[in-house]
Amino acid sequence: MATILRDLSYRYQWLYDSISNVAALAVGGEKRFRQLPLQGLSISPETRVLDLCCGSGQATQYLVQYSQHVTGLDASPRSIDRAKANVPQADYIEAFAQDIPFDDNTFDLVHTSAALHEMDADTLNRIIWEVFRILKPGGTFTIADFHSPTNPLFWPGLAAFFWIFETETAWNLLQTDLTGLLSAVGFQRCDRTLHAGGSLQVVRAWK
Ligand SMILES: C[S@@+](CC[C@H](N)C(=O)[O-])C[C@H]1O[C@@H](n2cnc3c(N)ncnc32)[C@H](O)[C@@H]1O
Fold first, then answer.
1. Could you tell me if the CB of 61 is within 6 A of ligand 1?
2. pLDDT tens sequence across 118-165
3. Of 185, 161, 187, whose CA–CA distance to 174 is shortest?
4. 115 lines ligand 1 (CB under 6 A)
5. Phi first, then psi: what are they for 166, rounded to 5°?
6. Other C-beta atoms lying within 10 Å of the C-beta of residue 75
7. What whole-number distance in Å separates Cα of residue 142 and Cα of residue 171?
8. Which of 52, 70, 97, 128 is 20 to 30 A from 119, comparing alpha carbons?
9. pTM above 0.85, yes or no
Protein backbone atom coordinates (compact mmCIF):
# COMPACT_ATOMS: atom_id res chain seq x y z
CA MET A 1 0.00 0.00 0.00
CA ALA A 2 2.61 2.52 1.12
CA THR A 3 4.90 1.86 -1.80
CA ILE A 4 2.03 2.19 -4.33
CA LEU A 5 1.08 5.58 -2.92
CA ARG A 6 4.70 6.67 -2.76
CA ASP A 7 5.13 5.70 -6.42
CA LEU A 8 2.03 7.74 -7.28
CA SER A 9 3.40 10.76 -5.45
CA TYR A 10 6.65 10.41 -7.40
CA ARG A 11 4.77 10.02 -10.66
CA TYR A 12 2.67 13.15 -10.16
CA GLN A 13 4.68 16.10 -8.91
CA TRP A 14 1.54 18.04 -7.98
CA LEU A 15 0.64 15.20 -5.59
CA TYR A 16 4.13 15.13 -4.02
CA ASP A 17 4.19 18.90 -3.63
CA SER A 18 0.67 18.99 -2.17
CA ILE A 19 1.59 16.36 0.43
CA SER A 20 4.82 18.20 1.22
CA ASN A 21 2.95 21.49 1.60
CA VAL A 22 0.43 19.97 4.00
CA ALA A 23 3.14 18.20 6.04
CA ALA A 24 5.16 21.42 6.22
CA LEU A 25 2.25 23.24 7.88
CA ALA A 26 3.45 21.61 11.11
CA VAL A 27 6.58 23.81 10.98
CA GLY A 28 4.91 26.93 9.63
CA GLY A 29 4.81 26.17 5.93
CA GLU A 30 6.94 24.96 3.04
CA LYS A 31 9.18 28.03 2.90
CA ARG A 32 10.11 27.76 6.58
CA PHE A 33 10.64 23.99 6.25
CA ARG A 34 13.06 24.58 3.38
CA GLN A 35 14.94 27.38 5.12
CA LEU A 36 15.25 25.87 8.61
CA PRO A 37 18.39 23.82 7.80
CA LEU A 38 20.11 26.83 6.20
CA GLN A 39 19.46 29.37 8.95
CA GLY A 40 22.60 31.03 10.25
CA LEU A 41 24.92 29.40 7.70
CA SER A 42 27.06 31.70 5.61
CA ILE A 43 26.33 30.75 2.00
CA SER A 44 27.77 33.04 -0.64
CA PRO A 45 27.39 33.01 -4.44
CA GLU A 46 30.72 31.11 -4.55
CA THR A 47 29.72 28.40 -2.08
CA ARG A 48 29.73 24.99 -3.76
CA VAL A 49 26.49 23.26 -2.80
CA LEU A 50 25.21 19.72 -3.44
CA ASP A 51 21.49 19.00 -3.01
CA LEU A 52 21.62 15.26 -2.38
CA CYS A 53 18.49 13.34 -3.45
CA CYS A 54 17.17 16.59 -4.89
CA GLY A 55 13.90 15.18 -6.23
CA SER A 56 12.22 17.70 -8.52
CA GLY A 57 14.24 20.57 -7.06
CA GLN A 58 12.08 21.30 -4.02
CA ALA A 59 15.06 22.39 -1.89
CA THR A 60 17.26 23.26 -4.86
CA GLN A 61 15.04 26.25 -5.64
CA TYR A 62 15.99 27.75 -2.26
CA LEU A 63 19.67 26.86 -2.50
CA VAL A 64 20.09 28.69 -5.82
CA GLN A 65 18.90 31.87 -4.11
CA TYR A 66 22.16 31.84 -2.11
CA SER A 67 24.74 30.20 -4.37
CA GLN A 68 25.56 30.23 -8.06
CA HIS A 69 27.22 26.81 -7.76
CA VAL A 70 24.43 24.39 -6.87
CA THR A 71 24.33 20.80 -8.11
CA GLY A 72 21.34 18.52 -7.66
CA LEU A 73 21.88 14.75 -7.48
CA ASP A 74 19.16 12.14 -7.68
CA ALA A 75 18.91 8.49 -8.73
CA SER A 76 15.65 9.04 -10.58
CA PRO A 77 15.95 10.23 -14.20
CA ARG A 78 12.37 11.52 -14.04
CA SER A 79 13.17 13.65 -10.99
CA ILE A 80 16.32 14.99 -12.62
CA ASP A 81 14.37 15.97 -15.75
CA ARG A 82 11.78 17.76 -13.63
CA ALA A 83 14.42 19.50 -11.54
CA LYS A 84 16.14 20.74 -14.68
CA ALA A 85 12.85 22.24 -15.85
CA ASN A 86 11.86 23.61 -12.42
CA VAL A 87 15.22 25.04 -11.35
CA PRO A 88 17.40 25.58 -14.42
CA GLN A 89 19.90 27.70 -12.44
CA ALA A 90 21.44 24.51 -10.96
CA ASP A 91 23.49 21.71 -12.53
CA TYR A 92 22.26 18.15 -12.19
CA ILE A 93 23.63 14.66 -12.11
CA GLU A 94 21.86 11.31 -12.08
CA ALA A 95 23.62 9.13 -9.53
CA PHE A 96 23.25 7.19 -6.31
CA ALA A 97 23.84 9.07 -3.09
CA GLN A 98 25.83 6.11 -1.75
CA ASP A 99 28.24 6.30 -4.70
CA ILE A 100 28.70 10.01 -5.42
CA PRO A 101 30.67 10.70 -8.60
CA PHE A 102 32.63 13.67 -7.27
CA ASP A 103 36.20 13.98 -6.03
CA ASP A 104 37.15 14.26 -2.39
CA ASN A 105 36.84 17.75 -0.86
CA THR A 106 34.61 19.18 -3.62
CA PHE A 107 31.69 20.83 -1.79
CA ASP A 108 31.32 23.45 0.94
CA LEU A 109 27.75 22.41 1.73
CA VAL A 110 25.83 19.19 1.18
CA HIS A 111 22.14 19.38 1.90
CA THR A 112 19.57 16.59 1.93
CA SER A 113 15.92 16.86 2.84
CA ALA A 114 13.17 14.28 3.15
CA ALA A 115 15.34 11.53 1.69
CA LEU A 116 17.39 9.67 4.30
CA HIS A 117 14.24 7.99 5.63
CA GLU A 118 14.11 6.04 2.34
CA MET A 119 17.50 4.39 2.94
CA ASP A 120 18.22 1.06 4.59
CA ALA A 121 20.87 1.09 7.33
CA ASP A 122 23.75 0.03 5.08
CA THR A 123 22.90 2.62 2.42
CA LEU A 124 22.52 5.33 5.05
CA ASN A 125 25.99 4.57 6.39
CA ARG A 126 27.51 4.58 2.94
CA ILE A 127 25.85 7.93 2.17
CA ILE A 128 27.26 9.50 5.33
CA TRP A 129 30.76 8.26 4.44
CA GLU A 130 30.38 9.62 0.91
CA VAL A 131 29.20 13.03 2.12
CA PHE A 132 32.16 13.21 4.50
CA ARG A 133 34.51 12.36 1.63
CA ILE A 134 33.21 14.97 -0.84
CA LEU A 135 32.92 17.80 1.71
CA LYS A 136 35.84 20.17 2.03
CA PRO A 137 37.39 20.38 5.50
CA GLY A 138 35.16 22.73 7.48
CA GLY A 139 32.25 22.01 5.10
CA THR A 140 28.71 21.49 6.35
CA PHE A 141 26.21 18.66 5.96
CA THR A 142 22.61 19.72 6.57
CA ILE A 143 19.77 17.23 6.96
CA ALA A 144 16.02 17.68 7.38
CA ASP A 145 14.08 14.48 7.99
CA PHE A 146 11.67 12.65 10.25
CA HIS A 147 12.30 12.10 13.94
CA SER A 148 10.43 10.30 16.66
CA PRO A 149 7.89 12.82 18.06
CA THR A 150 8.60 14.11 21.54
CA ASN A 151 5.04 15.45 21.79
CA PRO A 152 2.60 12.48 21.82
CA LEU A 153 0.00 14.58 19.96
CA PHE A 154 2.16 14.30 16.83
CA TRP A 155 2.28 10.49 16.83
CA PRO A 156 -1.10 9.78 15.15
CA GLY A 157 -0.38 12.13 12.24
CA LEU A 158 3.12 10.76 11.71
CA ALA A 159 1.99 7.15 11.99
CA ALA A 160 -0.83 7.74 9.48
CA PHE A 161 1.59 9.44 7.09
CA PHE A 162 4.06 6.55 7.38
CA TRP A 163 1.32 3.98 6.91
CA ILE A 164 0.10 5.71 3.74
CA PHE A 165 3.38 6.74 2.12
CA GLU A 166 6.40 5.18 3.74
CA THR A 167 8.06 1.83 4.27
CA GLU A 168 9.98 0.27 7.15
CA THR A 169 13.05 2.39 6.39
CA ALA A 170 11.16 5.46 7.67
CA TRP A 171 10.26 3.66 10.90
CA ASN A 172 13.90 2.58 11.20
CA LEU A 173 15.08 6.19 10.90
CA LEU A 174 13.04 7.03 14.01
CA GLN A 175 15.28 4.58 15.92
CA THR A 176 18.50 5.86 14.33
CA ASP A 177 20.89 8.18 16.10
CA LEU A 178 21.88 10.33 13.10
CA THR A 179 24.24 12.56 15.06
CA GLY A 180 25.94 9.45 16.43
CA LEU A 181 26.47 8.09 12.91
CA LEU A 182 27.86 11.44 11.76
CA SER A 183 30.27 11.65 14.67
CA ALA A 184 31.39 8.08 14.05
CA VAL A 185 32.61 8.88 10.52
CA GLY A 186 34.53 11.91 11.74
CA PHE A 187 32.24 14.95 11.65
CA GLN A 188 33.72 17.31 14.24
CA ARG A 189 30.59 19.02 15.45
CA CYS A 190 26.94 18.07 15.09
CA ASP A 191 23.87 19.90 16.24
CA ARG A 192 20.27 18.85 16.05
CA THR A 193 17.11 20.86 16.52
CA LEU A 194 13.63 19.36 16.72
CA HIS A 195 10.48 20.89 15.26
CA ALA A 196 6.82 20.01 14.83
CA GLY A 197 6.50 18.28 18.20
CA GLY A 198 9.81 16.52 17.59
CA SER A 199 8.62 14.85 14.37
CA LEU A 200 11.14 16.80 12.24
CA GLN A 201 14.87 16.86 12.93
CA VAL A 202 17.23 19.38 11.43
CA VAL A 203 20.79 18.15 11.78
CA ARG A 204 23.88 20.13 10.87
CA ALA A 205 27.35 18.57 10.96
CA TRP A 206 30.75 20.11 10.21
CA LYS A 207 33.68 18.21 8.73
C1 LIG B 1 11.04 12.14 -0.81
S2 LIG B 1 12.04 12.64 -2.14
C3 LIG B 1 12.79 14.12 -1.51
C4 LIG B 1 12.97 15.13 -2.58
C5 LIG B 1 13.49 16.49 -2.10
N6 LIG B 1 14.82 16.39 -1.56
C7 LIG B 1 12.58 17.15 -1.09
O8 LIG B 1 13.08 17.68 -0.11
O9 LIG B 1 11.37 17.19 -1.29
C10 LIG B 1 13.39 11.49 -2.06
C11 LIG B 1 14.26 11.52 -3.29
O12 LIG B 1 15.39 10.68 -3.04
C13 LIG B 1 15.72 10.01 -4.24
N14 LIG B 1 16.50 8.83 -3.87
C15 LIG B 1 16.08 7.76 -3.16
N16 LIG B 1 17.10 6.90 -2.98
C17 LIG B 1 18.19 7.47 -3.56
C18 LIG B 1 19.56 7.09 -3.69
N19 LIG B 1 20.00 5.94 -3.16
N20 LIG B 1 20.40 7.90 -4.34
C21 LIG B 1 19.95 9.07 -4.89
N22 LIG B 1 18.68 9.47 -4.81
C23 LIG B 1 17.81 8.68 -4.14
C24 LIG B 1 14.39 9.71 -4.89
O25 LIG B 1 14.54 9.50 -6.28
C26 LIG B 1 13.61 10.98 -4.56
O27 LIG B 1 13.73 11.94 -5.58
1. no
2. 999 999 999 999 999 999 999 999 999 999 999 999 999 899 888 888
3. 161
4. yes
5. -115, 175
6. 13
7. 21
8. 70
9. yes
Angle, alpha carbons 8-14-19 (nearest 5°): 75
Q: Residue 1's pLDDT is what?
A: 57
Distance CA 157, CA 135 (A): 35
User: Residues in the chain, how many?
Assistant: 207
The two most distant CA atoms of the chain are separated, in Å, by: 45
Ligand 1 touching residue 167 (CB < 6 A): no
Q: What average pLDDT is seen over the chain?
A: 93
Ordered domains of the chain (ranges, CATH): 2-206 (3.40.50.150)
In this structure, the number of other CB atoms found within 10 A of the CB of residue 58 comes to 23
Type of residue numbered 164: I
**What single-letter DSSP state applies at residue 138?**
E
| Choice from 8, 50, 73, 74 to test ligand 1 binding pocket (greatest atom count within 8 A of CB) | 74
Can you state the percent helix, strand and coil of the chain, rounding each to 5?
45, 25, 30
Q: Band of the pLDDT at 104, cuts 50, 70, 90? A: very high
14-67 pLDDT, tens digit each: 877 777 777 777 788 889 999 999 999 999 999 999 999 999 999 999 999 999
